């Protein structure tokens, strides 16, 4: 099937099988390998991207379903070499270790902060319920998102 | 001059991860690469009656289909540790084939591999492989596996034991001491099975280059050199120098990526057969079914005390599952990584542990974060808290009474345990005192008494752990059955411009080696850490290595690098002395330069480096270049320790446990980067909390895994846990150059019993004395009902 | 994980979707948010030959008021419901419930119509549609009809929907005093027990999910409510198919049902 969508501000068009997930499409057709597949069944959140501005798990969307949408992936967050404030905050607060869940964490954090610019720790933790991290124990991820909120609000 | 050791330097690896530019194995695509899918057994124990691959072979896009009859691997994947029976009989070591041929021994065991042009087509074709099985009865519990008449895992032996083993004092002596003890506390429980669950699933690509007759294996492993060695020497019989193993970024390991897996070897074989690269990435179902699991001990233990509350003896019997086959380090885990920690932080004079390690119709059990030490700590810290309750002594007080007194391991000797090891240095009083202060223990007890009056169930649990890491002195582990040395390699290459490349056999999969190793190398050389680059995960670049596990990277890998740094400075001093026309003994090295003592005559590290590579004006008899490799073999393990304290509230209506506070005061020796050490503790603690409250692999009676997805295996999420309050004391390791002990596993070792102790404490006034882990709401509620 | 091959058709209207359902019969499945269906397809537990995507049908994603009722289009996502002012003020119990579903990402894509049609016995919405006496509006080749919530759920993954029928909207009465209580399953975060209570003076309507294979109205609780302080103890009266798993066996689940009913009644 022919699909086209805007990804990180750029138009793409491909002919793909309907059974290909958005995550697979990004990784295999566009080489946007920052979107990771951890469980492939919407459990772990590593594949989180935004679809028309809202966080979504790219493993559980068929690429054909989001034909015509605007997608942002982790690769679209930084402005050239200048990292997004959320990315900066993760670095400054050691909010990542192995880095595998990190893209999903950053994209989910973006959704959390978009809808709630001044979240409490509890709200952040609740907001991350769809994202597993096996390395950090979440402590520094929560801290990073708090710090990102301060940066964005400053 | 800027220094780096001990500072919370931000990680240099983060930028690539944060931009989605990490290079994990599944991110790699090679020209002409094929994809593979496995046909796996739905049965735990079955005879394979027939396999029909005809339809699959004819399916669209299929390149090849292999089964156990035509696949390689006469030798199977080997086990790296031999633990023999107490009576001297050799460990029973079954062949672990790359593809099952006649018999299935666990659910998920691979029967066939299908190679196709795309992953989709490989999966489609795999469904067309027809396998006919005759199902047989299975046994999954290690204790039941040893009962008469239990289904046998391997027919060639009379029972299911892989080995049995014991450690410590003479059993009859320990039993006698228990007989005459003033008080004996007894526990029977299961330290249940866990799935490691690195978020990156295992992934391999093998690429055989027919013209060079060389393989490149991209693998998500914690130890690339060991994989290459096992693969070449034991499984495929191919020349080691013809194989390059690359493990770039690896998305978490926690032990599960130490081992040499069948898929790794099979893909290597396949890529030569088909003459093209081939990739396999595990899906999450396969990860649950085939990644090595952790724990799975059935424990019965007795601890005896005298009238003053001093421990007089400790006797334990365990059944520890091995799974269907012996994974790489499996036999070491419930034995030398477990029994050797039964001294804990206590002066216990008599200890005996007996371990029976049976095969079961399950996937293998091997090291999972902590590996044997969390199991030892859980036992010691639960039983001492249970004893405290029974003897009506405060659990902190009972620990203080029994602690080994502080010793620094230099002017005071190390502590000789009853279970083979000698502790390096320790101050167990110090961490408990600080932990209790951080918590506000006295106030908590008052608050608890008040809360109970109002029907509120709050509790505190203490755990004072010790662990052995910095694995390990080769001769020692060799005498204990290890089939490898456990040294590490550190290579320091000073470039002509004075920039430094460091090649380490340790492997980072989240630990931050690229940053931390650069910190101490920079300080030792007196240069900026931006001028130091760390290379790992490539067998063509790094001479050799034993990889990262057992919290060994800094203590062993770091020490190897320090040895090479010292060689660089030693040779540099010769060159500097020549250039400064001074005696070497008159030079001192500081801030990146050699200075003639008492003068302002000096030469910089950069100038000496250049001289080494442009040796025109050069000392006689000295080789050009500034490039050293060293092997460091530690003289002892290292012994980090600490106190973990949990505060919980139990919902009296539902039994749900709310973890309200978690305090960790750890002593990991000297600290290179406190930010990273804290991060390691946070993550480890939450994994330990996961075991205490949430996670459990369950196999049913037929050997089917009930918890094979995130719908049924409860992973700790952000809102399941609080912030972790951390602090440290510092008792340097006396036997390695950096004075470091290791921090990777401490969190997972100390935390589990703290949480369970807290839950039992919250319910103790209701008569609850123990609850099986994980302490799920159902189990807590049932425990409350039994007592009510 | 890759689903088996299927044909994908994007329906642009309800009638087109019905026509496609009629044509493909058993081989077809409707796709809305896909958050239950796609994982099942990836595990190859579900293998439709034709997937009819109704996600893009216009007119199925509005939230409107119709007299004393609120009409929610089947394609409204859980996030739409959480964020709707109208629902927050006049049907707050539904917003409370939607907040408990999945996670941010799932709420952004999963739909109320899809969830009801899937009829997972541990889903959250069934409790609240039962307690509210909501009506499920459906359309099929025979035309439109309205199914009362109490007649909609027939068993595990089984509803009163005919093969060619599509949920178009859910019609709720406005609810001033309603409350949803959920005890989470710790792995999936589905409901071990979910209880919705809608109070009106001396009477109450109680919907229970997660306990039985079929979500139910706890009529014994409702009957006992005005006269008894112990109404919650009747939470599982007459239920003979209590679900059981490693998180909650029958005994514990029955206990939790009573606790959650009590909380919902007292809230």
TrEMBL record, chain A:
InterPro entries: 2Fe-2S-bd, 2Fe-2S-bd_dom_sf, 2Fe-2S_ferredoxin-like_sf, 2Fe-2S_ferredoxin-type, Beta-grasp_dom_sf, Diverse_Oxidoreductases. Residues 1-77 form the 2Fe-2S ferredoxin-type domain. GO terms for molecular function: 2 iron, 2 sulfur cluster binding; metal ion binding; oxidoreductase activity. Keywords: 2Fe-2S, Iron, Iron-sulfur, Metal-binding, Oxidoreductase. The keyword Oxidoreductase applies. Signal peptide: none annotated. Transmembrane segments: none annotated. SUPFAM superfamilies: 2Fe-2S ferredoxin-like (SSF54292), CO dehydrogenase ISP C-domain like (SSF47741). This is (2Fe-2S)-binding protein.
From TrEMBL, chain B:
The keyword Oxidoreductase applies. The keyword Oxidoreductase applies. Residues 19-137 form the Aldehyde oxidase/xanthine dehydrogenase a/b hammerhead domain. This is Xanthine dehydrogenase family protein molybdopterin-binding subunit. InterPro entries: Ald_Oxase/Xan_DH_a/b (IPR000674), Ald_Oxase/Xan_DH_a/b_sf (IPR036856), Ald_Oxase/xanthine_DH-like (IPR016208), AldOxase/xan_DH_MoCoBD1 (IPR008274), AldOxase/xan_DH_MoCoBD2 (IPR046867), AldOxase/xan_DH_Mopterin-bd_sf (IPR037165). It comes from the Bacteria. One of its GO terms (molecular function) is iron ion binding.
TrEMBL record, chain C:
Gene3D superfamilies: 3.30.465.10, CO dehydrogenase flavoprotein, C-terminal domain, Uridine Diphospho-n-acetylenolpyruvylglucosamine Reductase, domain 2. Keywords: FAD, Flavoprotein, Oxidoreductase. It holds the Pfam family CO_deh_flav_C. GO terms for molecular function: FAD binding; oxidoreductase activity. Residues 1-177 form the FAD-binding PCMH-type domain. InterPro entries: CO_DH_flav_C, CO_DH_flav_C_dom_sf, Diverse_Substr_Oxidored, FAD-bd_PCMH, FAD-bd_PCMH-like_sf, FAD-bd_PCMH_sub1, FAD-bd_PCMH_sub2, Mopterin_DH_FAD-bd. SMART domains: CO_deh_flav_C. It comes from the Bacteria. This is Xanthine dehydrogenase family protein subunit M.
